[in-house]
Amino acid sequence: MLKQDNPGFLAEEIANLKALCAAENKSFIVIDDEDLPMGNDKEMVHIQFVGNYKEKEVVYDAILCTLQLHYSSTIYEEAEREAIEQFPLYVPIENRDETYVANEVLDDEVEMMILEIIDEIEENDDIKVSEYVELDEDFDFGISLEAALYVAALEDEVIEKFISDFNSNSLKLDSSLYSFKTEEE
After folding, report:
1. pLDDT(5) > 90
2. Long-range contacts of 163-167 (CB under 8 A, 24+ apart)
3. What's the pLDDT band for 89 if we cut at 50, 70, 90?
4. Using CA atoms, how far apart are residues 125 and 71, in angstroms rounded to an integer?
5. pLDDT 10s digits, 34-51
């Protein structure tokens, strides 16, 4: 259900975004997002662009990532879930707040276990991922869009093609299942 007070549907917000895009000579603007991983080498990007939703212009607030990053995240989440089953007192980093008291020994043990589980998952080829696009209309500003694309990097040309295909309803997602190997450092 669309929020009635969603500013991402307002004509002035859409016009403002179109002007920002025109100034950049692109169909999108990049949003500085401190929640994105540091040094992500164009593996993930937060953008906004104008598109149509139910025959109305709207601002799309989008997080795009490479399929390989999506795969790595999926594997890490699975490995962390398995490790937490073994160490129920472990608190994942994203769930820690200012009241959290660190337990370095436990944290180190769990991190080592997570790495071992990741190696096992990769070796057994247990997890596979495919391209996807998810929309969330219950969003504070416009429509939220999340997508994983099978590309090496999210260069401007890749993003422009994605937006063009998405807006023209000609986006074809690759439903093939993929797995990747982590490169040893």
Report:
1. no
2. 163/27, 163/28, 163/49, 163/51, 164/27, 166/51, 166/133, 167/49, 167/51, 167/52
3. confident
4. 11
5. 777 666 678 999 999 999
**How confident is residue 185, by pLDDT bands cut at 50, 70 and 90?**
very low
pTM, full prediction: 0.85
Which among 115, 125, 40, 114 has a CA at the least distance from the CA of 83? 114
Take residue 163 and report the two structure tokens written for it: 């937006």
How far, in Å, CA of 147 to CA of 179, rounded?
17
CB 26, CB 156: distance < 8 Å? yes
Three-state SS letters, the chain: CCCCCCHHHCHHHHHHHHHHHHHHCCCEEECCCCCCCCCCCCCEEEEEEEEEECCEEEEEEEEEEEHHHHHHHHHHHHHHHHHHHHCCCCCCHHHCCCCCCCCHHHHHHHHHHHHHHHHHHHHHCCCCECCEEEEECCCCCCEEEEEEECCCCCCHHHHHHHHHHHHCCCCCCCCCCECCCCCCC
Q: What backbone torsions phi and psi does residue 182 show, to the nearest 5 degrees?
A: -75, 135
Mean pLDDT of the chain: 90
pLDDT of 41: 73
